[in-house]
Design a protein that fits this description.
The complex is a heterodimer of chains A (116) and B (112).
Chain A (H helix, E strand, L loop, with lengths): L3 E4 L2 E4 L5 E7 L6 E7 L5 E8 L5 E2 L8 E7 L2 E6 L8 E8 L8 E2 L3 E5 L1
Parallel strand pairs in A: 2-11
Antiparallel strand pairs in A: 1-3, 3-8, 4-5, 4-9, 5-6, 7-8, 9-10, 9-11
Chain B lengths: L3 E2 L4 E5 L4 E7 L4 E9 L6 E7 L4 E4 L2 E6 L4 E6 L8 E9 L5 E3 L3 E6 L1
Parallel strand pairs in B: 2-11
Antiparallel strand pairs in B: 1-3, 3-8, 4-5, 4-9, 6-7, 7-8, 9-10, 9-11
The chains are: A mainly beta (116), B mainly beta (112).
Chain lengths: 116, 112
Amino acid sequence: GAVVSQHPSRVICKSGTSVKIECRSLDFQATTMFWYRQFPKKSLMLMATSNEGSKATYEQGVEKDKFLINHASLTLSTLTVTSAHPEDSSFYICSATRDAASYEQYFGPGTRLTVT
Amino acid sequence: DQQVKQNSPSLSVQEGRISILNCDYTNSMFDYFLWYKKYPAEGPTFLISISSIKDKNEDGRFTVFLNKSAKHLSLHIVPSQPGDSAVYFCAASREGTYKYIFGTGTRLKVLA
């Protein structure tokens, strides 16, 4: 199988601070990783696509300066929520693909962010 | 603009019966469709997929049907089991990209 992990699984932070979420592919090299956000009782909304060694591609309406994505290696991508506010509280999920031609994405378990 | 829609937010089915989850899409460029299952506070897990060149794909108790003319797909689970209780998302992908557009999900509850 293909395992994707996320750390932390849940985090509570104060308004104005920054939070980093890690996404790792444990047993495969991920050419592409995706970051999603899920609001309660809503769909998973794609935030950005990141390829190793290049800048992330953000979806319309997602603030690049607020949600910093770094894909430093083929097994690690990070999402940093900068100057977090309560409205950033959400469930953040990453996924990874094995190769660029693969439709199948393997999802991490998600990170619950609560901003107080 | 919700390009992938799951109009039933919830569904209850008796154990052993068939569960049918529906999904509609608006973009004719979508050429690959997937169903994911999600438990609370966990990431989605892949169930089954279908490409636009097929109209049916079967994997054990799970069958996905695709009606391209109606822009509609459905997931059939037979027989339904209590462990199938979860939120089911359909997702669509456009030709030339590997990004998913997810539906809003249907919460399935299988009653023992």
